[in-house]
Amino acid sequence: MSKIVILTGAGISAESGLGTFRAEDGLWAEHRVEDVATPEGFARNPELVMTFYNDRRAQSYEASPNAAHVALAALQQADGFDVVIVTQNVDDLHERGGADAIHMHGGLTTALCHHCGHRWPAPLVMDLADTCPSCGQTSTRPDIVWFGEMPYQMDRIERHLSECDLFVSIGTSGNVYPAAGFVQMAKMSGAEALELNLEPSQGASYFDKAINGPASQIVPEWVRSLIG
Length: 228
What we know:
Layout: E1 2-8, H1 10-13, H2 33-36, H3 39-44, H4 46-62, H5 67-77, E2 81-87, H6 93-96, E3 102-103, E4 106-113, E5 119-121, E6 140-144, H7 154-163, E7 166-170, H8 182-188, E8 192-197, E9 209-212, H9 215-227
Parallel strand pairs: 1-2, 1-7, 2-3, 7-8, 8-9
Antiparallel strand pairs: 4-5, 4-6
């Protein structure tokens, strides 16, 4: 059985209407990353950060999986392949498209207690006055990995990278670590590497092959080439 590890980034959700990380008209355009995506920003202005992610959650819930999400779900369910999807995205479009994914940067669908570490399903609108169902403290925050924090499940991800036959990067810029280094990890273990992206990423030279174009077009075409 061929093992494939697939890393997805904002580019796979862009065609579902969710802004990409670096796009000038993307969801970060109106805010400095330091203000809404760091522990320090949350400490300075928790109301701004909570409102920012409430808006992202509402936007995500209104979006629908596109053909790329659905195609990856079909590949994951196909016979003859062991497919692990690792996503940098905090939306749940992979799951709603029928796939399982490791969310290394957390997700909008869960809330996190920064006092005891408990997680629970996030309401559509989170509030700073929300109490943790486990410890009762008013210490809720978005379950998002911010800059300066350790991504989730790195041990598990690195194990999958060391075991894969093929590493595929879809819709990522190649400039945010540690994810940008996954291709090198996989290749050190003997895997081939394929990039599917709208345009070449910053790490394009590390890949053995690249296919450029919109994710909703090139991802289904690539999946069909594997499973028919």
